[in-house]
Structures are given as structure tokens and as C-alpha cells.
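DM from R.C. (forwarded with permission)

"hey, sorry to bug you on a friday — could you get me a structure for this? deadline for the figure draft is monday and I only need the backbone to look sensible"
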Amino acid sequence: MREPAAPQRLWEGADVSFAAIMVHVDAGSESSDRVRLAAQLAQRFGSTLIGISATMLPPYPAESAYFVTPEFVEQEQRDTIESLKQTESTFRAAVGTNELNIEWRSEVDLPESYIASEARAADLLVVGRPNDDICRSLDPGAAVLRVGRPVLVVPPGVDALSGEHIVVGWKDGREARRALRDSLPLLHGAKSVTIAEFCDSEVEASSRKHVEDVGIYLARHKIPVASELVVSGKASVAKKLIELATSRNADMIVTGAYGHSRLGEWIFGGVTRHLLRSSPMCCFLAN
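My reply, with the result:
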């Protein structure tokens, strides 16, 4: 009697990668380091690299409206379009002669709105640190909550990401699970991955189970893991997470982004807010 055929494994050989990486380029600001990092990632994964930028016309105070003529607004529009053209040139120069498939997208619009609408074209969005120029710069916190894609936040002056040593900051919930799953392409390239959950001593047993489960999950994906549980007490979780990443020579932290919008303002938990503004290494965030 012939034995039945083995069931087909639908996911065998499935591609785990980033087919398209989108990098935000600040209009009128220096973004070349971030673009070079994104280009290196695109080369590593054989991805299409999409440069994107947006800037909107500055708001005019009501008291000066009398002096704002149609001709003035038209000139502002032309200057804005020219600025976006120069930003595209900056993007292409930073990418250099790498044999990459690259695209460019730009619009006269609020960066947050335009990039949220265009992120459907990419697997990963690479952005910089937040600043106060809402007309030309992208708030990474707003991006991670709106784009529906993982966001890699790159600190100033960082132009490469080896990803050999990665720290996963775990907090059991949807956001951390999304971040872990979305970061698998980068985790596959790591030599070591440290998983850390910061907790108070009374919940240490359940937290240890969380970390063990995450370690098993990654091991099943053939990813080398060094699990770790840290009892936090009153210490700053974000500070401890950065200290741990520094001690492990990690150049990336993977974690969930915890926040919501209230009356148009993005409200974040302390850990997410601190990482967005202060982490010296790249942060891979998902919501």
C-alpha cells in the first residue's frame, strides 16, 4: 500500500524580506546619512528604494493677511516646488552609484499626511528624529501611528546599520508582537538577539514566561537568541533598555510603539517618547 503524500507546506521557502523601503528626506535639511543607511538596507535585501518628501506652504498669521497677495502666494508655491526638486537631487546624490531600483515621490502637502498616504507602497519606512518644523519635517511618532508599516527611526549622524546585535524590548501586547514579526528580515541577519522585559518583582514569573515564549518563537525562525529578564523597579525602562543595548554593542532596538491621538495631539508612553527623542541607536517600531 502506497503511503500518502506528505502535506504541502504552504510557507516553505516563503520570502521574508523588505521588497520596498521608503526613506523620508527632509526638505531643506540634511538627511544624507539616513538615505545612505536606507540605501545599504535596500542593497542588502534587494529592495526598491523610494525617496519621499513633502512640504507645505507656511501658515500666514491673520494679522498679516492684508499683505499676503496672490503673487506672493504663487512665488511661495514656486519656491516650495523648487525646494522639493533640490531635495530629490540630494536624495539621488546620497544614494550614489549603487545599482538600486530607486523611485522618488514628493508633494506640496503636510509631510505627515502625504507620507501616511504613500506608505502603502513600502514594507518599511525609514525616518529621522522629530523636530519642530511641522511644515517640512516628519514627526516619527505620528508616522508610526498612521502609516500601518514598521518605522525605523535613525538618530542623527548614523549612516549604517549592521544589525549584528539587536535588542528586543518586550512588553506583552499587540504592538510588541507586530514589531517582532515585522523585524524578522533584520533579525535573520543578526549574530545575536537579546530579549528583555522590564517588570516589577511581583510579576517576574509571568514576565519570564513571556520572554521564554518569544525566544522559542525566534528559535523556530532559526534566529540566535540570548533571552534576558530585567527587574526594573523604579528605574526608567527606556534608560535601562538603552543601557542594555549599549552593553551588548547593539545598533538597533526593536519594540512596540505605544500611543494614541487625542484632539490631534500624539500622546505617547514614556518609553516610546524617550526612544523617539533620545536613543543613540536605531529603533525599529511598530504599532
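R.C.: lifesaver. The domain at 20-153 is CATH 3.40.50.620 (Rossmann fold).
me: no worries. Residues 1-14, 262-268 have pLDDT under 50 and may be disordered.
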